[in-house]
Design brief:
Helices cover about 25% and strands about 25% of the residues. It is α/β, with parallel strands linked by helices. Strands 3-2-1-4-5-7-6 form a seven-stranded mixed β-sheet, with helices on both faces. α3 crosses α4.
Amino acid sequence: KYLSPHSIILELGCHQGVSTELLANHVALVHTIDVQEAPSRLKGLPNIVHHQGRFNEIMKRFQLQSFDLIYIDGMHDYEAVMEDIKLSLPLIKDGGYLSGHDYYTEVQRSIDTVIGIKPEIFSDSSWIIKKEEVRP
């Protein structure tokens, strides 16, 4: 519903690469950023590019409006999620989506503070909202 075979995604935090691999099955390209090296399950997959480092440093390398969707699943404390949202919004194409995992407690409070409206929530606690719905 939100992705096409031509979509380009950025995932913040890939941990073991499960969601990365799932996303890569449905889109053209997935960029991941994590402080750890790429998990072995992702190595050699042609449409996944792993960037090792801190989100705020790596995200400076991308052009504005580069991604159809950004999936936030890094640190889950209030300040970190707020920062991830603020860093992500300029990198999302018009008509694109901001999404993430673990919509509860501090993540929920960060989203409520920065975005200002409740996103669509899925059964696995993932969430999504269209970029244009985010308040200025």
